[in-house]
């Protein structure tokens, strides 16, 4: 090859070297948008799908594919696709469910606030109607499903923020009895605590930003389908709606997945101990924790002996002022509108995840001004308890007394 000018070498020197023969023990970050082939004929075969390979990162990328395959295996699904956020993953799952003008979505009344906005404001604008039901009342769900003949049922394995555990198998049976798909947001449970596809769900969705990543350094989402027939629709939503997961985020989330079991075991243990102690305080009106439910659903759905890693409390002084004073008094626990990280966080649902709902609507759901959600981390539990105790004492403005003392 003729000697090239230095201007050309600045552009091309060192690029497109052959890949090493040694197999990397950790999936590399393929931080490139395009791929080149030895001939246009070969590239055309990739574009057409005759040759399974990579051509453009919006269509697929090895780093992202590694994450997709990991979550697919963990959820025991047929196909998984990763997206730029949990909301993008939920959007894709709904798009993959053949919704059109006049279609009905029967959704749990206990969904994450942004999920309501997606259904009513985005899909609603295209004529999709959303009806709500209390998914803990199976008779109500069955009656509305029979009446409305919905195209989709949508629920959460563990609801946000009241931590109600969904009887996934029972709702799946209802959905399928009327020919509907059942989508489950399992962000709070993760595949470590529950695999909704094994219980009959059709598509499971995760905000990978939360427990899957676990370190507050990446945003992403994943949708996993039980039926390979959903692959084309989930892929199309990824390619055409544009919610493509960054390779950097995919790498961070994949790294987080490796320690998910270890993290959640510790987080669940800490949460159970914290919930038990908080339940004894006279200045707390109610503690929401899945293991405190008496309907038997938690034990049926979640992996024994775990009850999840979230706790929600309602202060006796059920006001925003008291809730914020408690949160502002925390010295170790982090104030953040997220969950699932290795460090413990608190969130005020009425002013964050569910702020778009009217106060009347929030109150009807049990999301009052004095409700605070605690996402429990992996710290020493005695340090968490000490910090939360002192903050509660300050918030209530009185000496703590144990219940039934």
What does this structure look like?
By secondary structure, this protein is α/β, with parallel strands linked by helices. The chain has two domains: 40-257, Aspartate Aminotransferase, domain 2; 260-396, Aspartate Aminotransferase, domain 1 (Alpha-Beta Complex). It has 15 helices and twelve strands. It has a seven-stranded mixed beta sheet, sandwiched between helices. Strands 8-9-12-11-10 form a five-stranded mixed beta sheet, with helices on one face. Strand 5 (181-185), helix 8 (190-193) and strand 6 form a beta-alpha-beta unit. Helix 4 crosses helix 9 and helix 13 crosses helix 15 (381-396). The longest helix has 19 residues, at 260-278. The model has no long low-confidence stretch (mean pLDDT 94).
